[in-house]
Automatic annotation (TrEMBL):
Keywords: Signal. Transmembrane segments: none annotated. The keyword Signal applies. Residues 1-23 form the signal peptide. One of its GO terms (biological process) is transmembrane transport. Coiled coil: none annotated. The keyword Signal applies. It comes from Marinobacterium iners DSM 11526. This is TRAP-type C4-dicarboxylate transport system, substrate-binding protein. InterPro entries: DctP_fam, TRAP_DctP_sf.
Length: 343
């Protein structure tokens, strides 16, 4: 542990020194998916451009990779090992419960609309519970609807019973338990290797990951449920001391190009990636089973997911947040925005 802390200290010092060069401030943002992933190739660089423009070039972004498991990024940002990061709240069970509001199934909205709604509802309701204490949350978003990627084809959700499926926490885990799969916990970047080696039989992830982690090479069967199974909750967050180190003008400028604007961008890019990845996978011969609303498998999933809302509401009843109103408002906003964004 002392050795690890020493390494983190060296990293933090290196970041601090590089940030002081040339009179500029560098916001070091930790990431964990491949550099080609839209969050790293598009979202963070675009956010960085917005920040640079808003601060007149005084604050810039640098992406840092390979800082460990994404679940540890919350602590690393709190401790000042790195200035900022993004990660899934589902990787930290027990700390984040209200964030599962954005993951619950049986409603339909794309990631762009859901992410915008998520930010608004967090600001109005969820922030009161202070689940992000220790960091400054500057963006909240979901990925596109999670779907079923398997080595072998399935014709029913019952085919997944007893299968080893990678699960990433949150509502995904609850669904896996209800489907009686053998859950295997691992971050998304490990899935390709696990499937290639036969450690798992499949995974629940958005279609984008057919491209970004090359699932189209190992998960040759893709089952698309109407509206998907769930949408994982993610957050962008910054060390408060970093924000305090900025001038008031630059702090205000940075935050002005974050929040809802960043949240919407992150969701939209994940959705766009999925649309493109689906066509690529079809072209590469991946067998795609498009399940339509009312089909037996769609009805099967409705039965699996029944009661999840009530279970979540019961789990957060002591949070001090009007969770029922928050959930209802989240879905209303998301579905309304999806219609608006299409126009």
């Amino acid at each position: 542990m002392k050795k690890i802390n020493k390494i983190y200290s060296v990293i933090a010092t290196t970041f601090a020194l590089s940030g002081m060069a040339y009179g500029e401030t560098t916001l070091h943002v930790a990431s964990w998916l491949p550099p080609s992933h839209p969050q790293n190739a598009v979202v963070i660089p675009t956010w960085g451009k917005w920040i640079e423009e808003a601060t007149k070039g005084e604050v810039k972004i640098k992406i840092e990779y390979n800082l460990g498991h994404p679940k540890d990024l919350f602590t690393q940002v709190e401790d000042g090992v790195v200035d900022a990061a993004w990660s899934s709240t589902g990787y930290v069970p027990g700390r984040f419960e209200l964030t599962q509001l954005a993951e619950l199934p049986l409603y339909s909205a794309n990631a762009e609309a859901a992410s915008t709604a998520y930010w608004r509802v967090h600001e109005k309701y969820l922030s009161k519970a202070r689940e992000f204490d220790g960091v400054e949350v500057v963006g909240l978003f979901t990925h596109a609807p999670g779907q079923i990627h398997t080595i072998e084809p399935i014709t029913s959700l019952a085919d997944l019973e007893g299968k080893k499926m990678r699960l990433g926490g949150g509502v995904m885990n609850a669904l896996g338990e209800r489907m009686k799969v053998v859950g295997v916990g691992a971050p998304a970047p490990k899935v390709y290797e696990m499937m290639q080696q036969g450690v798992i039989d499949g995974t629940f992830l958005p279609v984008c990951e057919q491209r970004t982690i090359r699932l189209n090479e190992v998960a040759r069967n893709l089952t698309l449920l109407p509206g998907g199974m769930y949408q994982t909750s993610f957050a962008f967050f910054i060390n408060p001391d970093f924000l305090d180190s900025l001038s008031e003008e630059n702090r205000t400028a940075l935050l002005s190009v974050s929040g809802e604007r960043l949240s919407r961008l992150a969701g939209a890019e994940w959705e766009r990636c999925g649309d493109e990845a689906l066509q690529e996978s079809i072209a590469k011969g991946v067998q795609v089973n498009v399940v339509k609303k009312g089909d037996p498998m769609a009805e099967e999933f409705v039965r699996v997911a029944e009661g999840l809302d009530e279970a979540w509401l019961a789990s957060v009843k002591d949070s001090g947040v009007d969770a029922e109103s928050a959930l209802s408002e989240f879905r209303d906003i998301a579905m309304k925005l999806e219609s608006e964004y299409k126009d």
